[in-house]
Amino acid sequence: MTDQEHHFGTDHPIGVAVLGMGNVGTEVVRIIQEQAQDLRQRVGAPLMLRGVAVRRADVDRGIDPALLTTDAHALVARDDVDLVVEVMGGIDPARALIGAALTAGKSVVTANKALLADYTGELAAAAEHSRADLYFEAAVAGAIPVVRPLIQSLSGDRVNRVVGIVNGTTNFILSAMDETGADYHATLAEATRLGYAEADPTADVEGFDAAAKAAILASLAFHTRVTAADVYREGISRITSEDLETAAALGCTVKLLAICERVPAGPGEPGSAQGGKDRISVRVYPALIPRKHPLSSVNGAFNAVVVEAENAGRLMFYGQGAGGAPTASAVMGDVVMAARNKFFGGRAPGESVYAELPIAPIGDTPTRYHVNMKVADRTGVLQAVAGEFAKHGVSISTVRQEGQDTGVIESGPEAAAERNHAGPSSTPRRQGARLVVVTHHATESALADTVAALAELESVTSVTSVVRLEGTEE
């Protein structure tokens, strides 16, 4: 039994080092100090803050300056540190610091989704080798408990799908666009002013943050190692106010979704016959969802995750997905669990990646689509457009056509067919029109071929947007 594996006495403190003192780190330190007596009762031994690693130790941070250090490596290596809380973010030096802590048998609690999305395997192996714990509840959805349910509560079930809103910045922007009718750039500027968006919002608005979280969720749900590179990703920067208007007309709204699901093996692949392996599809993109879908009412900076399991059915987790105090709440839940394990000699569940399911290419993934295009407003345009969809095997569900200044002039496939055969005298003459096509389920590759063909039609001025449609009964 090593020094780090001993059972702690009730008066023997469990030493905690905190790496980083931004919004989350500040709240973690506050909770450790303000709730010391409660935490002692819950753990069985006192939690003792040994030090906090910061970039500058000469800044007043509202705590004893003697606790501050700029040497994070030395803090982690201290003999009186038993548990390391990493809330500094980024890949380096967080990766090296966490690795050093785990190798030394010190348990780690982290909120670092970018690191975990690519290096969970490496860190989990280090934890297993030294019999330390690695906890990361706060890495996916802030205060929302979804990691522990996937690892523990649903470990006896089979998870088939996880879909969620896991980025507060993009959800704030899309919610505001939906409510006010403002365009993307104006809403992003407002989000930045209010502090919901970073000065450089790329990681949020282009889906990188959500993709890292999707990789973590998929790994846990399907017992398969998934990295950020495996996640198909699109952001919201191309979403227009017109997309939101059309979505509203269809009884929908637009959300940036992280989707992880089992899909059947492809034709000719191992597993396509009965008894073989599924594949998994992991993707992040903006999508229309019906107003009746539970995720449609998740607005502002809030997050939510829906888990669908074979026996448990549909479970929904909702709450604040970011912010100092909410994220610190999840961090501290992990701190208590890790500290209890130190006190009682227990262990957290290790990484479970036995399934090794293959990743389905996005081109093979079927979904429904909302295609918005500008077209010439004349007889025969709908017929030509519908012909391209049919040629590429994409079935049309509904068609909606709007003149430039006079509102909707066609709606639904029946009306479209009537207009195609009505003749010139029944066609209002305008300079152009907007055509919105909603498809039945089709693969990404078939839709991409269709859009490329539409762009070549003389009657199509431009395909202005393609947005997926999720959450329908079809």
Describe the protein in words.
The protein has 474 residues and is α/β, with parallel strands linked by helices. The protein has 3 domains: 3-142 and 325-344, NAD(P)-binding Rossmann-like Domain (Rossmann fold, 3-Layer(aba) Sandwich), CATH 3.40.50.720; 147-320, Dihydrodipicolinate Reductase, domain 2 (2-Layer Sandwich), CATH 3.30.360.10; 365-469, ACT domain (Alpha-Beta Plaits, 2-Layer Sandwich). Helix content is 36%, strand content 24%. The strands form 2 sheets. Strands 7, 8, 9, 10, 11, 12, 13, 14, 15, 16, 17 and 18 form a 12-stranded mixed β-sheet that branches. Helix 4 (94-103) packs parallel to helix 5 (113-130) and helix 14 (381-391) runs antiparallel to helix 16 (444-456). The longest helix has 21 residues, at 324-344. The protein is elongated and about 85 Å long. The N and C termini lie far apart (58 Å).
